[in-house]
């Protein structure tokens, strides 16, 4: 006996095997991201006021990436529709766009990551005076960029200062801090636009804590990196599968077109799910 | 599913394009609203999640064909969503139900 | 795996097309559900023995604090070094062994045996399917399990040893222990979880899609229902733990603070972390799996017991529908009771009331299932063979375990009992003399199908009576110890507390309570010894057991007995058609006292 219903749907359930399989798998994925979203909510409502990071991501880039992913989703479903009417060429064309979109998404994402790794927060022992929103304020916490021996280093932490025996480094603060409300931040950004930023020279001894925007910076960045990295792995996995079916696996279109179309549909279902997760990740991480 | 005729598919394609446009518009709305800066954080969150939910529903219903799926799939996903909500809200409920001064745990 | 509609796939022919595969593809990288089932079974039994040995060493140590472990002590000192200096287990090593005992028993032994082994071997046969729906996914599931197991095993030998924070791995303790054991544990768990998820997808899809013609939902043997619900528990409860595992891994290797609170001090010093995390979050996510997991342990066991009881009472199982609906109810409810493991975190009264209520409700379907089994015995002409003995013993043992859960379900009484040996006794009664007895029953019952030979009845009985007695010697005293206030996970077994006690204070750790450690130790040694006949019996019977004279030596009704022995690749010579429910024993007016599910009605009604 051979395994039935690999291509044709079973009568009483109306489904072929892989369709059941992928939906079950997606159910478990829902719970996987459910666990992470629960963590997000619980950590956020439990955060001490003023410690929750927000407003530091690049919204235009995030929006563009969202559009890229949405585009890839529609090309997936269009390619499936093309196969349904037997148009293999059109299927290949649309699915090529999908794969390009996936690569584009990952490329943009890694660019965003890199930007974060060389962006810092410094906690100082003594407060300093900075201009925010046109006003002088005293603060012991600054966001900004480091310059040391002509370089903009990435991944530095409090420990690095001791390890590299750094005596002092140049620090260009941003005009904002996440302790401010979104409105205040927008105002501060506007007033600072076009003006030359202040610069500080901090001694290592002045620094209580130094952290780049890496997972260890705060629970927000921990969540940001964990969630987006896991999502990016899904994008990568999905793209590999779609590429396999599109390229080396395409022989099946000749031998068993119905099953081939099923494969395209199933990989598409996964792809839409990945898109769907991003639809929530984007506002939750970038906007709120 | 072999019960799709060519005309069916043509109709589907039209729907897909419509949904695609709707998703882009939804994205623009969310981002635009974000630049308005409502005073109430709760309102901001509510609107953003509302739009996201609609977008997600569009993807699930049309791109993933949930709107015309079989009963078995509905059943599986209904339970999943139920437990998803249970996980999220019972943990949250527990968090808010802790006596004062223990919530930082 | 060609696409064929069921009509085309025709009997007998299938065999001719297959050339004989080589050793590697036949036994190691097999996609045949029967081989994978046996692979799962052997691996899991090995881990079961290993986990048991860990515990035996621990029991010896807490019965004799500070003294070198006999026999294996020098070996421990040699292999593990400083943590077992002079053959004495240090507290660190005790904690490692304890944590790994729990992990191995739950995730590497009992679940793989109950779900991976029996589920794989029996379910496709029972529903009349040629194999699992996704054979290659099935193989991947087993391979992920092996990789996870290897990672767990290797972690014993890395510097600092294996994980020490218990099978529950509560943060921040788990993250602040400076060794790498926890990292290995987390990576291992991620593999094991992946394995379970792949398995769950496969099982559920198989049961939904590959039931033979006529095998309607209400004709499924209860064992299949139990596996079906178990599949859903794994599918939906494990992912949140996978998420939690990823987060704890980030805490461990990337310096995040998902579960580390602000102001955390380690070793008297403020930890260098951002803080802002929540230890309770870990507990929620862990127990969201943890509670369904206990039903993952028990449901397949109930399924096995049901098959064995029905077969050996030669009666319809009483209340088939109640069994099915109860198992569904258990599956559903087990997702919303988890925080009964967290009453002592200072939880508020509203949420606590909610979880106390659901916990009490979930015990109802468990009681219904047990009651159905008891009533099924009524008026049967019972065959007392080894599988039946184990299945019968399951009933009171699970009963004790379940009933002692009730006081734990109320936060008022749990206040006293939480984290004591009472809890240990409770869950071991459900899992050890409960589930593991059912698994033994399953092994004795299905062995003839797998090998074509029967296991020795005489040694089976020795194994059974020995196990029954010693299990109770081991676990019954723990109730007393727990109620006396003995806390679990103490490396000296409470010796320090017992010295500090006020001589005639009630409820202290008296000499009597402390001396129970010795009794338990000897119970444990006895339990180990009576497993020897079992192990020999298994291997000896493969070659020398009494040959079965028919494909259906127990005169059973379900489909797995209506195939050749052992079933060939593809299972059935021709696709079976099902005409009746699973337990048609002793139907009036029939020549035989059993009517297989695929036997057609001989014209008209009966
Ligand atoms: C039938 C009704 C049951 C009830 C009301 C019940 C209740 C409880 C409660 C409230 C606890 C937490 C005790 C504490 O930590 O203070 C507990 C622990 C436990 N139960 Fe049960 N239980 C039941 C059945 C089962 C079954 C069927 C199993 C497994 C097959 C099981 C396995 C466990 C395990 C493994 C733990 C301990 C977890 C740990 O802390 O390491 N229980 N039970
Ligand atoms: Cu529980």
- How far the N terminus sits from the C terminus of chain C, by CA atoms, comes to 41 Å
Quaternary structure annotation: heterotrimer
Structural class of chain A: alpha+beta
What is the SS-derived class of chain C? Answer: mainly alpha
Order of helices and strands of chain C: HHHHHHHHHEEHHHHHHHHH
Rg of chain A, rounded, reads 24 Å
Q: What CATH architecture label of chain C applies?
A: Up-down Bundle
Main beta sheet strand tally, sense and closure of chain A: 5 strands, antiparallel
Shape of chain C: globular
- Taking strands numbered 1, 2, ... along the chain, how are they ordered across the largest sheet of chain C? 1-2
SS field, number of helical segments of chain A: 8
Order of helices and strands of chain A: HHHEEHEHEEHHH
Q: How many beta-strand segments of chain C?
A: 2
- List how many beta strands of chain A DSSP finds: 5
Uncertain residue segments of chain A: none
The CATH superfamily name of chain C is Cytochrome c oxidase-like, subunit I domain
Report the β-strand fraction of chain A as a percent range.
5-15%
Structure in a nutshell:
The complex is a heterotrimer of chains A (288), B (105) and C (606). Chain A has helices spanning 17-45, 59-84, 88-117, 158-163, 182-192, 219-246, 252-255, 257-287, and strands at residues 120-132, 135-147, 168-173, 200-203, 207-212.
Features:
heterotrimer; A: 288 residues; alpha+beta; Four Helix Bundle (Hemerythrin (Met), subunit A); 2 domains; 5-stranded antiparallel beta sheet; 8 helices; 5 strands; elongated; B: 105 residues; mainly alpha; 77% helix; flat; binds protoporphyrin IX containing FE; binds copper (II) ion
């Amino acid at each position: 006996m051979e395994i039935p219903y690999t291509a044709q749907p079973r009568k009483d359930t109306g489904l072929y095997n892989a369709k059941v399989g992928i939906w079950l798998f997606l159910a478990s994925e829902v719970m996987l991201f459910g666990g992470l979203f629960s963590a997000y909510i619980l950590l956020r409502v439990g955060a001490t006021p003023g410690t929750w990071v927000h407003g530091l991501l690049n919204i235009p880039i995030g929006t563009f990436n969202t559009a890229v992913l949405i585009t890839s989703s529609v090309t997936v479903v269009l390619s499936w529709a093309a196969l349904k009417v037997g148009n293999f060429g059109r299927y290949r064309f649309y699915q090529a766009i999908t794969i390009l979109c996936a690569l584009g998404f990952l490329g943009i994402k890694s660019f965003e990551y890199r930007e974060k790794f060389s962006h810092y927060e410094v906690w100082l022992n003594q407060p300093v005076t900075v201009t925010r929103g046109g006003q002088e304020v005293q603060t012991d916490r600054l966001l900004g960029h480091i310059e040391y021996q002509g370089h903009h280093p990435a991944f530095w932490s409090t420990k690095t200062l001791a390890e590299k025996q750094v005596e002092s480094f140049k620090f260009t603060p941003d005009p904002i801090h996440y302790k401010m409300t979104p409105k205040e931040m927008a105002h501060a950004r506007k007033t600072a636009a076009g003006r030359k930023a202040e610069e500080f020279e901090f001694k290592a001894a002045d620094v209580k804590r130094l952290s780049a925007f890496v997972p260890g910076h705060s629970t927000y960045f921990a969540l940001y990196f964990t969630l987006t990295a896991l999502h990016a792995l899904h994008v990568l996995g999905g793209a590999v599968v779609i590429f396999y079916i599109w390229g080396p696996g395409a022989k099946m279109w000749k031998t068993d077109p119905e099953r081939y179309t099923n494969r395209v549909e199933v990989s598409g279902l996964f792809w839409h799910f990945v898109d769907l997760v991003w639809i929530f990740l984007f506002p939750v991480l970038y906007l709120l | 599913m072999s019960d799709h005729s060519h005309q069916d598919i043509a109709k589907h394609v039209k729907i897909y394009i419509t949904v695609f446009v709707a998703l882009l518009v939804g994205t623009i709305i969310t981002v635009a609203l974000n630049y308005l800066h409502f005073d109430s954080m709760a309102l901001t969150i509510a609107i953003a999640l509302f739009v996201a939910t609609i977008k997600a529903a569009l993807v699930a219903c049309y791109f993933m064909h949930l709107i015309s799926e079989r009963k078995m799939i509905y059943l599986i996903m209904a339970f999943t969503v139920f437990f998803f909500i249970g996980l999220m809200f019972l943990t949250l409920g527990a968090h808010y139900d802790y006596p004062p001064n223990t919530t930082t745990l | 795996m060609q696409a064929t509609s069921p009509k085309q796939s025709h009997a007998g022919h299938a065999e001719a097309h297959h050339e004989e595969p080589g050793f590697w593809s036949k036994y190691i990288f097999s996609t045949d559900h029967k081989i994978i089932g046996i692979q799962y079974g052997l691996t899991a039994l090995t881990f079961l023995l290993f986990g048991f040995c860990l515990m035996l060493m621990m029991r010896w140590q807490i019965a004799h604090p500070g003294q070198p472990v006999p026999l294996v002590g020098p070996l421990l000192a040699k292999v593990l070094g400083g943590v077992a200096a002079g053959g004495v287990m240090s507290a660190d090593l005790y904690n490692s062994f304890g944590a790994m005992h729990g992990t191995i028993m739950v995730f590497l032994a009992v679940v793989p045996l109950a779900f991976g082994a029996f589920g794989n071997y029996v379910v496709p046969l029972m529903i009349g399917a040629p194999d699992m729906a996704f054979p290659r996914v099935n193989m991947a599931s087993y391979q992920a399990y092996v990789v996870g197991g290897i990672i767990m095993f290797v972690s014993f030998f890395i510097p600092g040893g294996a994980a020490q924070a218990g099978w529950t791995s509560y943060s921040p303790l788990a993250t602040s222990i400076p060794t790498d054991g926890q990292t290995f544990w987390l990576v291992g768990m991620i593999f094991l979880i992946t394995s379970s998820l792949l398995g769950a997808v496969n099982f559920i899809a198989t049961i939904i899609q590959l039931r033979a013609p006529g095998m309607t939902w209400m004709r499924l043997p209860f064992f299949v229902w139990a596996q079906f619900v178990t599949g859903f528990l794994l599918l939906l409860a494990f992912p949140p733990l996978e998420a939690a595992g990823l987060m704890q891994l980030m805490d461990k290797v990337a310096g995040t603070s998902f579960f580390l609170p602000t102001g955390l001090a380690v070793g008297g010093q403020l930890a260098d972390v951002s803080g802002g995390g929540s230890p309770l979050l870990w507990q929620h996510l862990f127990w969201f799996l943890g509670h369904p997991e206990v039903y993952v342990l028990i449901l397949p066991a109930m399924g096995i017991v049901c098959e064995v009881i029905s077969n050996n009472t030669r009666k319809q199982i009483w209340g088939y529908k109640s069994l099915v609906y109860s198992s569904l109810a258990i599956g559903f409810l087990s997702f919303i009771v988890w925080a009964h493991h967290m009453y002592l975190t200072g939880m508020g009264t509203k949420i606590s009331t909610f979880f106390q209520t659901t916990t009490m409700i979930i015990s109802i379907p468990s009681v219904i299932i047990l009651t159905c089994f008891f009533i099924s015995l009524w008026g049967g002409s019972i065959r007392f063979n080894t599988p039946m003995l184990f299945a019968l013993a399951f009933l009171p043992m699970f009963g004790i375990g379940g009933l002692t859960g009730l006081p734990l379900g109320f936060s008022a009484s749990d206040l006293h009992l939480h984290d004591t040996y009472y809890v240990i006794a409770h869950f071991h009664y459900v899992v050890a003399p409960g589930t593991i007895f059912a698994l033994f029953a399953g092994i004795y019952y299905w062995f003839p199908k797998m090998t074509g030979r029967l296991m020795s009845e005489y040694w089976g009985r020795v194994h059974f009576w020995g196990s029954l007695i010693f299990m109770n010697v081991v676990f019954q005293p723990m109730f007393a110890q727990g109620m006396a206030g003995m806390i679990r996970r103490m490396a000296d077994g409470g010796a320090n507390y017992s010295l500090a006690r006020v001589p005639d204070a009630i409820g202290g750790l008296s000499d009597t309570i402390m001396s129970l450690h010795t009794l338990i130790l000897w119970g444990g040694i006895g339990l180990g010894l009576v497993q020897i006949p079992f192990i020999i019996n298994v291997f000896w019977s493969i070659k020398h057991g009494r040959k079965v004279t028919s494909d259906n030596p127990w005169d059973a009704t379900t489909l797995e007995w209506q195939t050749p022995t052992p079933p060939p690749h593809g299972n059935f010579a021709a696709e079976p058609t099902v005409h009746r429910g699973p337990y048609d024993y002793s139907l009036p007016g029939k020549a035989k006292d059993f009517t297989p599910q695929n036997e057609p009605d001989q014209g008209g009604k009966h």
